[in-house]
Amino acid sequence: MQRGKHEACVRGKHVSSGKGRRLLKKGRRGLLRALFSRAGMIALLILLQIGIVVLLFSFLRDYLPHFVTLNAVFSTLIGVYLLNSPGDNSSKITWLLVIILVPTFGALLYAYTRSDLGHRLLKRESVAGIERSRGLLAQDEQAMEQLRAEAPFAEGLYRYVNRTGCFPVYRNCSARYFPLGDEMFPAILEELEKAERFIFLEFFIIAEGEMWQAVLDVLTRKAAAGVDVRVMYDGNCEFFTLPRSYPRELETRGIQCRVFAPVTPFVSTYYNYRDHRKILVIDGNTVFTGGVNLADEYINRVRRFGHWKDTGLLLRGEAAESFTLMFLQNWSLFGRVKEERIEIPAALPLPQQSEKGLVLPYGDCPMDDERVGELVYIDMLNRARRYVHIMTPYLILDGEMEMAIRFAAERGVDVTLILPGIPDKKLPYALAKTHFAALLSSGVKISLYKPGFVHAKVFVCDDREAVVGTINLDYRSLYHHFECAAYLAGTDCIADIERDFQQTLEKCVPVSEQTIKEEKWGERLSGAIFKWISPLL
Length: 537
Prior knowledge:
Helix content is 47%, strand content 17%.
């Protein structure tokens, strides 16, 4: 209590103690450093550009009273184009509402986003990288025979995934499931110590702390020993977790580093497309993926939103080569020198394994107009016979995904969702709750993880198939992010995934019509207000 009073005093106008004055000065210096840092300057420049556009529009609007008809015609033409363009119907409805509310500005904004201004090069290079990769990974015919014999229900899914990114299905791959980042972390360190040829690491978030420092120590030693070590992280880290100079710091340690889509001081649709993947490939035969980033909250060393529930997957075998390819595709996008070819380094051979089931790794690229992550989920929902159990941190659904979930439940399938009990972001949480009533009306069961935050991205179905990866049930993951996952059919770890789901469910509280009625009115209002622009968030 005394500490709280003192801090309140420091924040107020009357600072009586010398310690309070020092804290206040330190806070002001921190604010100045933030404002004049590169991230602060970029943020100010972006806000300035937005302000100029708004002022220009307001100025011109005052001088265009006689162009109401032209305004209406222009907005109508944009609306007709929108309705006839490919895309999700939910996002079309959102854009139509924007155009109706602010006709000219809304139409111009839509035209601007459709122009691909700022990310045309990224889109062109991403699609070209996928095309250059075709033929690099060969499909083992014995794996195909096993798929047809043991998992014929997944053959159509394989054909779709293979068509979008040329990802083979693999046999004789061991799969180990981690129900917590806390358990995955020591396994990561153990496998890193075994590296002999290369370590490729690609994560959405890297933050300085206990977890990253332990990983970095091993990477530094391995680089000094001649191992090819490469690190890639999303450009958002430059704003929130790592300094702009961090790649140079890693290079002094012998570690190659690239930043995916570095933040620039220009307003652009470029910011939509983030690298949300989590990939760690070791020697081409071992790979980690899942929801876990390299930051301390993911292993519960820091408690930000209660207990952090996350999951991960360790794969051994030839399936690692698909994740190696995914890493190299994104790595090639941001090199100083244009890389015309993608070359997959030779994997360190593993002892012959005889594992049950099949593994189908896949990536989702937002630039190729294929919604791989969403369609894999929908395919599982449509084929389910007994149950589909889902863990996801966010639930901001388009019409197709919501209908697939509801239809599965209405067919008599046990569809159960586990969501966070303590949210990390209030607005997405409020938006998630706008779906609850409709889902419950179809028989979908929803439970909230009482101890804290669920960051896991898991689908498990009928004791026979599962997906573990990075793909959330929201617009950002399903439409705008680079994602990855592993589809599992008949592997032993599927039983572990379902067991973890049931154990997690025991720590949850169910959502009901009554609990929906008891929600805070402010949260319900904010969800209702912002739902119409949820595809744009």
